[in-house]
Design brief:
- The protein is α+β, with helices and mostly antiparallel strands.
- Helix content is 25%, strand content 27%.
- It has five helices and ten strands, in the order H-E-E-E-H-H-E-E-E-E-E-H-E-H-E.
- The protein has helices at 2-12, 56-63, 69-79, 165-179, 193-201, and strands at residues 21-25, 42-45, 50-54, 88-95, 106-108, 126-130, 136-146, 149-156, 183-188, 210-213.
- Strand 7 and strand 8 form a beta hairpin.
- It starts with a helix and ends in a 5-residue tail after the last strand.
């Protein structure tokens, strides 16, 4: 838990929450994220409270709303300069104890010619499982948010789904993250049943935590 707390304090600007919805102004929301894009709203809730990280200039006005989730969700987009967007919620999972599943992939640079386009933006080596002919079958990228936390993303080619590749790759990547002294996190949409199954099987139980964000498209 120390790794997770350190990651969330760094990524959000404060952790744990001290009230039901704690608005925090953080310079991190004005700086490029793992992929060079801006993420003006990031929030994490642990079932008891939420830390909502926003640019410093928006924090005071939002905090004045009194920490009511509905009011904040309505006011957030305009407060951070994106009135046409809506706040989204996902499932936030983390792991410090992945199962001992057999390894399934090879670590390669994201610029490797065999790596598909979706893995190229990741800021570190990516983990790839190849098929019998050396072509991409499944892979995991790591969003290295800070020195304490790395978020995993996984995708499998349709022809190779149902073989357990995703769970093996996620468990393998988690062990690498842990060996490096960080905590691994895993996010997915509430209705993404397939992603939830991978998370469950690879050591990321659903603890009732949530992630909040505002897609900006840039």
């Amino acid at each position: 838990m120390d790794r997770l707390a350190a990651h969330l304090a760094s990524w959000l600007g404060a952790w744990p929450p001290v009230r039901p919805v704690q608005v925090v102004g953080s310079r991190r929301r004005e700086e490029p994220g793992w992929d060079g894009r801006l993420y003006p709203v990031v929030g994490v809730g642990d079932g008891r409270g939420v830390v909502l990280s926003v640019p410093p200039g928006a924090a005071e006005a939002l905090d004045a709303l009194g920490g009511h989730c509905d009011g904040l969700a309505d006011a957030l987009p305009a407060a951070v300069g994106h009135p046409d967007r809506k706040v989204g919620r996902g499932v936030f999972r983390w792991s410090l104890d992945p199962p001992p599943l057999p390894e399934a992939g090879e670590w390669v640079p994201p610029g490797d010619a065999r790596v598909p386009e979706w893995l190229r933006p990741f800021n570190g080596d990516v983990l790839v499982a190849w098929d019998e002919e050396g072509r991409y079958a499944a892979g995991v990228g790591r969003k290295r948010h800070d020195e304490h936390g790395q978020e995993l993303a996984v995708a499998t080619e349709p022809a190779h789904q149902g073989k357990g590749l995703a769970r093996r790759l996620v468990a393998q990547a988690t062990r690498r993250v842990l060996d490096g002294g960080a905590v691994a996190t895993y996010l997915h949409a509430p209705d993404n049943v397939a992603s939830a199954r991978v998370a469950d099987a690879s050591g990321f139980p659903d603890r009732g935590w949530s992630i909040y964000g505002l897609p900006t498209g840039s």
